[in-house]
Amino acid sequence: MKAYINRDCLWMNVPIRLSELLGESRDKIIGRSVSDYFVEEDREKINQQWLELITHSTNSFSLFTKMIGADKETIDVQLVCFYPGEFEKNGVDIVAYIQDLTKQNRHVRTIENQVKEHTRFIELLSDGYLLVDSEGRIKEVNNAYCRMTGYSRKEVLGMTIFDINPDLTPDDQQQLIDSLKKNQSQSIEVIHRSRQGSNLELQGTLVALERDDGIYIAGIVKNITEHNAIMRELTKQSVFNSKLLESTNDGYILADAKGNILDVNPAYSQMVGYTREELQKMTIRELESNFNDEEIFEIIKEAMETGNVKFKTSHLNSSGNDVILESSLTLIDGVEDEPLVVGFVRDITANMLLMNKIKESEERWEGLVKDNPNAVVLTKGEEIIFVNDAVLKLYGTDKESEIVGHFLLEFIHPDDREKVKSRLRNFNAGGTEPPADLRFMRKNGEVRYLEVHSTQARFHGLTAIQSVLHDVTDRVLYKRSIEKSLKQKEVLLEEVHHRVKNNLAVVSGLMELKVMYTQNEELAKELTDSYQRIHTMARIHETMYQNESLEDLQFHELVEQLVDSVLTAFEAEQVHVSYDLEPVILTVNDAIPCALILNEVVSNSVRHGFKEYETAELSLKIEQHKGQVDLQIMDNGSGIPDHIIENRNDSLGFTLMDMLTDQLSGKLTIKGAEDAGGTVVRLQFPNESA
């Protein structure tokens, strides 16, 4: 049935057969919209094809659809539309062929007539057309099919359907014919091989045509190779996205514009404690516990305007508890222009609880520190970000703005700033620093001495350095006063030692003069002994005021000087002396009696023990063990007679040594040498400096 339609898609002329088919008069049909007579589900498709035709995006279109009769019954038809030829008159815009497909024989005859009468129409089709006989020989093709496959019409008409579709067999061909006889038409997707050898994926509709010379198959096909490749890629991407959504730890929600949940992933299902099936029966409103309907509408509105919106919210889980979520919402196109809501959510409940605890802890810390009597300051880099009231008081202000926001170095004495910079660099590198003494500049210019204890801390989510400042100005000044006083006393004590040494030197000098002028040998002997004793004490005092310490001295270093002094006094430098001296430090209270005992023993050895100095030997040994000093003096002289040792209290020298030993709380033993004769004197006493 041939009809004419204008650009507004209104019937201009319809054949009587179409009028009869629809059950309405021609006058009632003409002037009405063409789409009114087609089923609703195909109207959008027809309008789209119509738009492409009148905008010259295509030359023709063909589709199988259903028309609606006056009795509301549907009629299977094929609608073919194309531009008219030059012979058409009366302002005709579009020629339409409508074929009733209700009855098979009528359909076959109509298709045959269409093929014979409208070869030109076939050539105008943008889709490929081919006619194949029952043996598979290709009898007719249009230009569109030739362009599609790359063959010329002459090449194609010499081929069989089996040449361009190797997967098809004669049995398949016969089954297809039998099927088409029963079902009138059939939609298919097949593979045809192009002239270049590539496979073309074709989609189309086949019908069986019965002619006098046999059964033919006519087909209109469209090349969907590229479309299928895109669809396969989209399917692959869809599968990938689906797997990604199934495996991600973030929750996924798909809902319609009314809030009905269409789909979720396992992560969201686990977050709220519902199964996917349970959630697909619920709405977002049932889960949302943070926003009301109006607020939700505003969020969706913002998403429509910006494309995406991020916010925090809470959903109720199956136990009725809030799950705090960080959400990202996007709108996408759905079916029939209905938008769909896509939401990605992350469970931050644990993080929020932790942050709240940290915040509460910081607030408690800040409350405690605020009233802390110790000055507390927090810095980020070199900038001060927090101080307590004690710092304000220390600086001499009641305004935080005079300190907070300023650089720490502004309040540090210029000579200490490099030390502070070094400490800050070490802290920023993750290190630690021991307490430090720094000078702090008050508002009025006064310098205060601070003992600073610093450590890393967290403050309002920032990594900072917390420093506790102890004002030790009074302690520093007192220490300086003590040090000054001590220095004065040390100088005074040095002077005392020096003057004692000088006075002793004067006394010993007078005695030495007396010895030189006396004729009394006994008196000369006594004066020499006294002179040597005084000289020994003077040597001790001389060492003390020359020593860094006024309390202790290195006694082992003094021994050789004392022995040399005795030998010189008695002109006995030829005596061979050996030393085995461990380092021993003695206080002045121990050094003087020990030195005097040493003086007495060496003097006795030189004066009484040795007959000839050339063969005389003197051995001295000092060692210290567990706080006990052990001084041993041994000579190879004639030895001390036993009766003198037994009556030693009658000797001034022995009496003096015993008194000095008692002063040391020590023990003095005198005996003869077992190996080579001579005398061994051993002094043992506790060391106060050990």
TrEMBL record:
Database matches in Gene3D superfamilies: Histidine kinase-like ATPase, C-terminal domain, PAS domain
Keyword RNA-binding among record annotations: no
Keyword list, A-Z: ATP-binding, Kinase, Nucleotide-binding, Phosphoprotein, Transferase
Residue ranges annotated for the Histidine kinase domain, each copy included: 495-689
Catalytically driven reaction(s): ATP + protein L-histidine = ADP + protein N-phospho-L-histidine
E.C. no: 2.7.13.3
GO molecular function, one term: protein histidine kinase activity
Keyword Transferase: yes
InterPro entries in UniProt: HATPase_C_sf, HATPase_dom, His_kinase_dom, PAC, PAS, PAS-like_dom_sf, Sig_transdc_His_kin_sub2_dim/P
Domain PAS: 18-57, 114-187, 243-307, 361-431
SMART domains: HATPase_c, PAC, PAS
Protein name per UniProt: histidine kinase
Organism this protein belongs to: Gracilimonas sediminicola
Lineage of producing organism: Bacteria, Pseudomonadati, Balneolota, Balneolia, Balneolales
